[in-house]
Amino acid sequence: MTTHQKFKISVPATSANIGPGFDVLGMAFSLYLTLDCERLGPGAGLQMSYEGEGAEDVPLVAEKNLITKTALYVLSTYGIASLPPLKIHVNNPIPLGRGLGSSGSAVVAGVMLANSAGELKMSKDRMFDYCLMVERHPDNVAPALFGGFVASFLRELEPEELEPSSIPRSEPTRNGASQPPTPLTDIGHYMQLGWAKEVKAIAIIPNFEVATEDARAALPDNYSRADVIYNLQRVAVLTHALSRSPVNADLVYKAMSDKIHQPYRKSLIPGMQDMLETITPKTCPGLVGICLSGAGPTILALATENFDKIANAVQDCFARQPNLSIESEYKVLDVVHDGAQVQYSN
Ligand SMILES: Nc1ncnc2c1ncn2[C@@H]1O[C@H](COP(=O)(O)OP(=O)(O)O)[C@@H](O)[C@H]1O
Ligand SMILES: N[C@@H](CCOP(=O)(O)O)C(=O)O
C-alpha cells in the first residue's frame, strides 16, 4: 500500500434548515474549508497553522481544535492514540457562528483527516456515522460530506442505544463532556435532491454571531398540530419546486415559509421577520425564496438574477435596526454537487 506524503481535504460550507426544512434540508456551497496536509518524519509531532475566519480565536492545540479533536476521537476508536507526525495548514473562509455550518464542516474535515492520516479506509457512509456522533445536525453534515441539496434524518434509537454514553451529542465543542463512544451504524439517512441550476444562493452575513446551541435553546419542546402540518405541506412541495427549471419563484417563496424555528429565533436576529415579509419576488425581482440560514444570523436568499440588489435589500434591513445599525457582507454562491473531497499527491 502506498502512503501518500501530501493530501488536501476540502469541505464545503453549508446552509441548513432551508425554509420549512428545520433539521432536515441543507445545501452545500462553493466556499471551502481546506486542510493542506504533509506527513513529517518520526518524532516531528503535529505542526498546525491556520488562516481565515477564526484565525484569532481558534485553538491550534490538537486536543482543543474542533478539527483535530474530532480526528483524535475517530482514531481513538481504532486504537490509535495520536495523529501521526503531520504539518497541517487550515484555510477557513467560513465565518464562525453565523449559520453557515462552520462547525459541521470542521467536524467533517476532522473525520476525513483521521481517515486519510490513519489510512482507515472508511466509506463515506461510515464517516457520516462518525460525524453525527460529534455534530448531531444531519442537515449540515450530510451536504458537507455528500454535496448538493440534501434531505436527511436520523434513525430512532433503540432503548438500549439510548444509554447516555451512546447518544450522539449536538454541541460537543462547548460542553466539554467526555468523548463519545464508537458510533452505532446507519445513524443517518439522506437523499440528494434535484436543484434548478439557474438558482444561486446569496448569503447575507451580519457582523454578530449566534451560537447554534443558544438558538436551539430558544425553541419550544412541543408544537401544535397545525404548525407541524403547515411545515410538512411546504417541505414536500419545496423539495420538488426547487428541482424544476425554470423555477416557479412564487411557489418556492410561499413554500419556504416556516412555523417551526424562525418565529422562535426572531429575537436573536433583529430585522429577520421584516425581511422575510417584505423581500418577496414582487418587491425584488429575481428573488426565489428567503429564510434564515441554519440557526442564523446569516440570511439566505435564493435568486436567479439581481443578486446585488437582493443582497442590498437585506443589508438595508439590518442597517435600519434601531440603535443597532448592523453591518453585513454578502457572498453570491453556487450550490455545489460535490461534497467533501481528498486529493492525494506524491
Ligand atoms: N475551522 C474551524 N476550526 C476549529 N473550530 C471551528 C472551526 N469552525 C468552527 N469551529 C468551532 O465551531 C464553533 C461554531 O459552531 P456553531 O455555533 O455551531 O456555528 P456555525 O453555525 O458556524 O456552525 C466555533 O465557535 C468553533 O468553536
Ligand atoms: N438544524 C440546526 C442547524 C444549525 O446550523 P448552523 O449552521 O447554524 O450550525 C439548527 O437549526 O439548530
From TrEMBL:
GO terms for molecular function: ATP binding; homoserine kinase activity. Pathway: Amino-acid biosynthesis; L-threonine biosynthesis; L-threonine from L-aspartate: step 4/5. Residues 65-148 form the GHMP kinase N-terminal domain. It comes from the Eukaryota. One of its GO terms (biological process) is threonine biosynthetic process. It catalyses: L-homoserine + ATP = O-phospho-L-homoserine + ADP + H(+). SUPFAM superfamilies: GHMP Kinase, C-terminal domain (SSF55060), Ribosomal protein S5 domain 2-like (SSF54211). Keywords: Amino-acid biosynthesis, ATP-binding, Kinase, Nucleotide-binding, Threonine biosynthesis, Transferase. Transmembrane segments: none annotated. Pfam families: GHMP_kinases_C, GHMP_kinases_N. Residues 251-318 form the GHMP kinase C-terminal domain. Residues 161-183 are annotated as: Disordered. Its EC number is 2.7.1.39. InterPro entries: GHMP_kinase_C_dom, GHMP_kinase_C_sf, GHMP_kinase_N_dom, GHMP_knse_ATP-bd_CS, Homoserine_kinase, Ribosomal_Su5_D2-typ_SF, Ribsml_uS5_D2-typ_fold_subgr. Belongs to the GHMP kinase family. Homoserine kinase subfamily. This is Homoserine kinase. It comes from Mortierella polycephala.
